[in-house]
Write a structure and sequence with these properties.
The protein is an alpha+beta fold. The protein has a three-stranded antiparallel beta sheet. The longest helix has 22 residues. It is elongated, with a radius of gyration of 19 Å. Helix 1 crosses helix 2.
Amino acid sequence: MEKKNIKKADLALEISKGTGLSLNDSSEIVDLFFNILSEGIVEEKEVKIMGLGTFVVKHKKERIGRNPKTGETATIEPRNVISFRPAKGLRNTLK
């Protein structure tokens, strides 16, 4: 399986091609989408996009970790992480 990174510019170009909008308008749409998504995650702690999946903020507790090179133990501070749960339709297409 080939790894593919998709950049905002690539998304804007595809939107521009598919809709006939200018590249500038498409770039604004992509930026607006990511801003809405980011704000939603920060404020709501969960953003659901039907057909794609759900972005959820999870809280990780403090724990003891280990440096694999040195074997030294260290405390890993509590933190929030973003998790993605794919929608059922997306999961089925991946099978």
